[in-house]
């Protein structure tokens, strides 16, 4: 109700405001000044999840979300879209439909955060003050750091599952494959879902086998990393698969240039500075370099690397006690995934509810994260692990094995859990089920 009054006030000043009563939340484009008890920056996985939880904790009228995008995407399904197993349209829904009802949506981009004055400034000039701030701005893709991109995507034979603009180009390149190298890359930066760059390789291999073209394909995974996957238990299984399916893995190779007119990709050897290698491709899947949100990086909230500087147990900011964070924008030392967002949301909810009562946070985030490593059109290895890189598996079976059941989880169960559980603030990760399945032992 309070935000409704503020909106009315904006309207009377003649500033353009759109209120979608049928969407049950209020939204504004521009209003010179606003104040909200709880301000959430970013309306992606972490932002919508936390706004739903904060609505429950302090009432819808006290919560606002700053998010410029009209569409909200379930990014994990892009792996299957790039391989033609799902439609791109199935990955997105209007942001209005996932915004919790009654929560105030500021439809603009955050431009500046000043935690010393509890102020956020948006692109349209609105100044928003807050009592509490949750930063959920995700990370930044940097296609432009590869010479020849992003304009190279205008040519065929090249795609990337990492954005809605390029994911269908992956599927097109795969379908058009005739003969030659199919090349998959992993950049020399932190990434979100570190398994995704190789999942599309396994799917492409499966597709080329299914269509009788595998013998004409040389499939290679050129990764900047010195390992195939960070957690040994799952890496061992993946090495077995690449050997069995004749997939070439080249470690410490970093994509620096694409020459789409010649269908050439240029890699630097990270172990031998100055040494480069040109690879001709018939299909190229690019995982772009990634980095921190530029807004976080340019604020006092960032650590030296530009990531949101959080206490890794409680998700409270290390210097500003009324600031919290979740997801890909943070410096939490775990793999950046939606599954991590789910587990973090339960801890952050608890931390904030305790602080509101002047009590100390008592729930600790163990770094839980998960990566369903899709290895074909009907198998998945479900990697789950914690801050220490120790497997933290939900099911009482060996999850390093390829399983049909896990594919079904990835393709059918998880999207449902995302839209109807996580985004409504009702899913805090599989911790309680893990305890149950392991008879309280994990
Ligand atoms: C191809 C692919 C496959 C993946 N597979 C999996 C998987 O299998 N399992 C899994 O758990 N995770 C997976 N992920 C990762 C998962 O999608 C992310 O980790 C998760 O979405 C992170 O949530 P977030 O809220 O931190 O960031 P996001 O969901 O990216 O949200 C960030 C939001 O901030 C907004 N924003 C950015 N800048 C501004 C600004 N200046 N002002 C206002 N708003 C802004 C953006 O518009 C966006 O809505 C995958 C991701 C990709 C791309």
Describe the structure.
- It is globular, with a radius of gyration of 22 Å.
- It is 27% helix and 24% strand.
- It contains 11 helices and 22 strands.
- Strands 1, 2, 3, 6, 7, 8, 9 and 20 form an 8-stranded mixed beta sheet that branches. A 5-stranded parallel beta sheet has the order 11-18-12-13-14, with helices on one face.
- The model is unreliable at 1-22 (pLDDT under 50).
- With 442 residues, the chain is an alpha/beta fold.
- Helix 2 (45-58) runs parallel beside helix 9 (338-356).
- The chain has 3 domains: 2-138 and 293-356, FAD/NAD(P)-binding domain (3-Layer(bba) Sandwich); 143-290, FAD/NAD(P)-binding domain (3-Layer(bba) Sandwich); 369-437, no CATH class.
- The site of flavin-adenine dinucleotide has 37 residues, from helix 2, helix 3, helix 9 and strand 21.
- It catalyses: ubiquinone-10 + hydrogen sulfide + glutathione + H(+) = S-sulfanylglutathione + ubiquinol-10; ubiquinone-10 + hydrogen sulfide + sulfite + 2 H(+) = ubiquinol-10 + thiosulfate; a quinone + hydrogen sulfide + glutathione + H(+) = S-sulfanylglutathione + a quinol.
- Belongs to the SQRD family.
- Its cofactor is FAD.
- Residues 37-155 form the FAD/NAD(P)-binding domain.
- Pfam families: Pyr_redox_2 (PF07992).
């Amino acid at each position: 109700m309070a935000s409704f009054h503020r909106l009315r006030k904006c309207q009377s000043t003649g500033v353009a405001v759109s209120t979608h009563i049928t969407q049950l939340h209020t939204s504004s484009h521009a209003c010179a000044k606003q104040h909200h008890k709880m301000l959430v920056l970013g309306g992606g996985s972490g932002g919508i999840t936390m706004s739903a939880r904060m609505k429950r904790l302090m009432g819808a009228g006290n919560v606002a979300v700053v998010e410029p995008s009209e569409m909200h995407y379930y990014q994990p399904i892009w792996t299957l879209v790039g391989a033609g197993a799902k439609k791109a349209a199935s990955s997105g829904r209007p942001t209005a439909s996932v915004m919790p009802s009654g929560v105030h949506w500021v439809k603009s981009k955050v431009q500046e955060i000043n935690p010393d004055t509890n102020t956020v400034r948006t692109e349209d000039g609105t100044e928003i003050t807050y009592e509490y701030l949750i930063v959920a701005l995700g990370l930044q893709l940097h296609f432009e750091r590869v010479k020849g991109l992003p304009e190279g995507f205008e040519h065929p034979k090249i795609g990337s599952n990492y954005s809605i603009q390029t994911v269908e180009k992956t599927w097109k390149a795969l379908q058009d494959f005739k003969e030659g190298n199919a090349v998959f890359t992993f950049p020399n930066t932190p990434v979100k879902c570190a398994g995704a760059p190789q999942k599309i390789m396994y799917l492409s291999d499966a597709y080329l086998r299914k269509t009788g073209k595998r013998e004409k394909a040389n499939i290679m995974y050129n990764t900047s990393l010195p390992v195939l996957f960070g957690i040994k238990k799952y890496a061992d299984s993946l090495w077995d698969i690449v050997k069995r399916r004749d997939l070439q893995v080249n470690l410490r190779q970093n994509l620096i240039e694409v020459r789409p007119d010649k269908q050439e990709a240029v890699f630097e050897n990270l172990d031998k500075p100055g040494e480069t290698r040109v690879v001709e491709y018939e299909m190229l899947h690019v995982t772009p370099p990634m980095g921190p949100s530029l807004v976080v990086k340019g604020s006092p909230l960032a650590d030296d690397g530009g990531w949101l500087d959080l206490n890794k147990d409680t998700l409270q900011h290390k210097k500003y006690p009324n600031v919290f964070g979740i997801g890909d924008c943070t410096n939490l030392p775990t793999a950046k995934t939606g599954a991590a967002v789910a587990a973090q949301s339960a801890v952050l909810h608890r931390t904030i509810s305790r602080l509101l009562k002047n009590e100390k946070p008592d729930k600790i985030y163990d770094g839980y994260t998960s990566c369903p490593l899709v290895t074909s059109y009907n198998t998945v290895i479900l990697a789950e692990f914690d801050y220490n890189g120790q497997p933290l598996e939900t099911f009482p079976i060996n999850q390093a094995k390829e399983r049909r059941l896990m594919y079904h989880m990835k393709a059918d169960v998880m999207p449902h859990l995302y839209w109807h559980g996580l985004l409504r603030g009702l899913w805090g990760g599989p911790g309680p089920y893990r305890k149950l399945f392991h008879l309280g032992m994990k």
